Amino acid sequence: MLQAKLEDGRLILLASHQKEQIHNFRKQRFFCPACRKSVIIRAGKKIIPHFAHEQIHDCELNKTGESLYHMRGKLQLFHWLKKQGYAVRLEECVKDSARRPDLLLHTSSGRELAIEYQCASISDEELMRRNEAYERNEIFPIWILGGNRLKRTSTYMFDLPKREQRFLMQHKQNMPLQLLYYCSDTETLCNVQHILLTGKKQTVGQFFFRPLQSLRFPQIFQPLPKNLSEINQAWHSVQARAIAKPLTYAPVAMKRWVMRLYDNGLLLQDIPLSILQPVETQYQMSVPPYIWQTDMWLEVLNHLSVTESISLKRLMYTCRKWEVATKPFAISSNKHPVQSYMQRLCQHGWFDQIDSDTFVKKKGLSLF
User: Fold this and answer.
1) What is the mean pLDDT of the chain?
2) Per-residue pLDDT averaged across 70-94, rounded?
């Protein structure tokens, strides 16, 4: 932990003191802010001055197992916010809870933000417990992932496993999906926006790397310019490779879907790329877009005559079996992926949207 209490109750942030002061602090007793048990000073040439429990025991602050990378980044973010005039505290306890976020920011409007700098993996259950504790106390959580977790594979591609997708954010309706990464080694923040999920860990996104000290806090929640053609090209390339590759190790449900294609006289490679469209709300689906989008065509869209209408509710009912039970916590949009997909088809001339719930077919697809 970065701070502890003296016997008189004063909270000491050890890393903010000079070497001589830290030496003098060794003569005094310090206590853990969470469990009140005795802690000792850890300081040296190669480590950030901090406190540690004298003995291993069950304490909220003792469970994290902070790395030097994490501790340094938390401290850098703390000083960055302080320089901008924000009222921010390290490891402050949330009332009616044992939760101690890395940083708790108190805004001038009275709103509180919990900033978690997450450098290690955590379970779904732990993430849910933390978010629920913040929600009960009307605290908005902001998750910043460690730069060590960013696995970039090309200019517009990175690997984002299902577990990492839980940290997707969209704080306002007009904001694109985003992820935040911070590297405490280079003091650089990476804002990944315009994210398109492919249904696998391969993910399309646009990367914006900026030195932390050149940014102000509100800037990380503003939409950044989008290279539309390059992003769409990257997404379509991934989909083309996916349907060209045999699903040897696919789950049983997906293999059944492939057999359904066979029953319709189609191979996986026969799926026309023109009907596969990226949607930002793909996180609501348990299978890749080429599965549920093709399924919609086979089930409903292909059977419609030109000028015939179909309701959005009917299409959403068709895809209900592919929906996931849980969604990322910090997403403000309630838009369904089927709605996004149909609007994409309208843009490409397949359908017209008559009202919020009705679409009319404009042209057919000969392959189906």
Assistant:
1) 88
2) 92
pTM, whole model, 2 decimals? 0.84
User: How many secondary structure helices (H) and strands (E) does the chain include?
Assistant: 8, 19
* Predicted local confidence at residue 266, as pLDDT: 83
The domain of 307 spans 246-361
Give the C-alpha separation, 130 to 143, whole Å.
11
Note whether 117 and 215 are same-domain residues.
Answer: yes
CA distance 154 to 100: 36
Ranking 62-71, 110-119, 151-160 by mean pLDDT, the lowest is: 62-71
Q: How far apart are CA 345 and CA 322, in angstroms?
A: 20
**C-alpha of 27 from chain center:** 44
Per-residue pLDDT at 261? 84
Contact yes or no for 94/104 (Cβ under 8 A): yes
Q: How many Cβ atoms from other residues are within 10 Å of residue 269's Cβ?
A: 11
Residue 240 maps to a domain: no
Cβ atoms of residues 84 and 217 within 8 Å: yes
Residues 206 and 88 in one domain: yes
Q: Span 131-157, mean pLDDT?
A: 93
Domain check: are 153 and 165 in the same one?
yes
Q: What is the pLDDT of residue 108?
A: 83
d(CA 206, CA 189): 14
CB proximity list for 211: less than 8 A, separation 6 or greater: 187, 188, 189
Question: Do 55 and 71 share a domain, yes or no?
Answer: no
pLDDT confidence of 5, banded at 50, 70, 90?
confident
10 contact partners, CB below 8 Å, separation of at least 6: none
Among 366, 361, 363, 321, smallest CA distance to 342 is for 361
Q: Specify the number of domains making up the chain.
A: 3
Sign of CA dihedral 68, 70, 73, 75: negative
- The encoded tokens of residue 28 equal 């005094």
